[in-house]
C-alpha cells in the first residue's frame, strides 16, 4: 500500500515536471526559430549574424542541459537497491567533483566516520551529493572551502555539505527546490529539486542553513540501516 502511494506521488511529480519541462523547452525553441527566420534574410551584417548564432548556441545548450538533468532523474532505477557505505560514496563523489573544484579554486575537505551503512540506490544518492557539491562550488566564485562531513547520530546518518560562498537570503531559501529556479546564467534550476526528491524517496530529509555573503550548510538526514551498522564485505 505504502509503495503504491509513493509510486503515485512520483508519477504525478514526473507529470508536473514534464509539463514544466515542455514549457522550459518551448521558450528557447521559439527564440531559435525567430533567429533562424532573421538569418534567412540576406541583408544581415556579418557581426549581427555571429551574435544571433551565439545566442542560438546558448539556447540549444540550455535545452540540452535541462533535458539531460531531467532524464538522469526520471530513469526508473530507484527500485534497484543495495547496501553500501555512505563514506565510500562520498569519496567517489568528491573524486568526481575535484577537477571542477580545482578549476574554481575550491578546496574540498572531508571528515567521514567509518562504516556508515545505508540501503538504497547508490546512483541516486551519488547524484544528489554531486548536485549539492557542484552548487557549493558554484557559490564560491572567488574560491573557498567545501567541507563534507558524515557521521552517525542516533538513528540517522548525517551528511553535511558546507561552503563558504555567496549564501542565500530567506526569500532565496524559500524558492530553493522549486523546478527551474536558478540564479545562474547557465543554470537549469533542476539540481536541488531532484536532490530533494531523491532524499524524500528514501525517507530522509534535508535542512538548509544559509547566511548571505557567508556561506551555506546543507544537512542531509538518512534513516540508518536498522539491521546492522557495519558492512559485512
Ligand atoms: P542550478 O544550479 O542549475 O542553478 P539548482 O537547482 O541546483 O539549479 O539550484 C537552484 C538555485 O539555488 C541556484 O541557482 C542558486 O541560486 C541556489 N543555490 C543552491 N545551492 C546553493 C549554495 N550552496 N549556495 C548558494 N546558493 C545556492
Ligand atoms: Mg545546481
Automatic annotation (TrEMBL):
Its main location: membrane. Keywords: ATP-binding, Cell membrane, Kinase, Membrane, Nucleotide-binding, Phosphoprotein, Transferase, Transmembrane, Transmembrane helix, Two-component regulatory system. The keyword Ribonucleoprotein does not apply. It is a multi-pass membrane protein. It is found in: Cell membrane. Its EC number is 2.7.13.3. This is histidine kinase. It comes from Brevibacillus choshinensis. The lineage of its organism: Bacteria, Bacillati, Bacillota, Bacilli, Bacillales. The chain holds residues 192 to 424 of 424 of the full protein.
Amino acid at each position: 500500500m505504502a509503495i503504491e502511494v509513493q509510486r503515485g506521488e512520483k508519477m504525478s511529480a514526473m507529470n508536473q515536471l514534464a509539463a514544466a519541462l515542455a514549457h522550459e523547452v518551448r521558450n528557447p525553441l521559439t527564440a531559435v526559430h525567430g533567429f533562424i527566420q532573421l538569418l534567412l534574410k540576406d541583408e544581415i551584417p556579418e557581426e549581427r549574424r555571429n551574435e544571433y548564432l551565439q545566442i542560438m548556441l546558448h539556447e540549444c545548450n540550455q535545452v540540452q542541459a535541462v533535458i539531460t538533468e531531467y532524464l538522469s532523474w526520471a530513469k526508473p532505477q530507484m527500485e534497484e537497491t543495495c547496501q553500501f557505505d555512505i563514506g565510500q560514496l562520498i569519496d567517489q563523489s568528491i573524486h568526481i567533483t575535484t577537477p571542477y573544484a580545482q578549476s574554481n579554486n575550491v578546496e574540498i575537505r572531508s571528515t567521514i566516520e567509518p562504516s556508515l551503512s545505508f540501503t538504497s540506490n547508490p546512483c541516486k544518492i551519488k547524484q544528489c551529493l554531486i548536485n549539492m557539491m557542484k552548487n557549493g562550488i558554484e557559490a564560491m566564485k572567488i574560491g573557498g572551502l567545501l567541507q563534507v562531513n558524515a557521521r552517525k547520530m542516533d538513528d540517522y546518518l548525517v551528511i553535511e555539505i558546507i561552503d563558504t560562498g555567496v549564501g542565500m537570503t530567506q526569500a532565496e531559501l524559500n524558492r530553493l527546490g522549486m523546478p527551474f529556479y536558478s540564479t545562474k546564467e547557465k543554470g537549469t534550476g533542476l539540481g536541488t529539486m531532484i536532490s530533494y526528491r531523491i532524499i524524500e524517496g528514501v525517507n530522509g530529509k534535508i535542512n538548509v542553513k544559509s547566511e548571505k555573503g557567508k556561506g551555506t550548510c546543507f544537512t542531509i538526514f538518512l534513516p540508518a540501516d536498522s539491521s546492522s551498522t557495519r558492512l559485512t564485505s
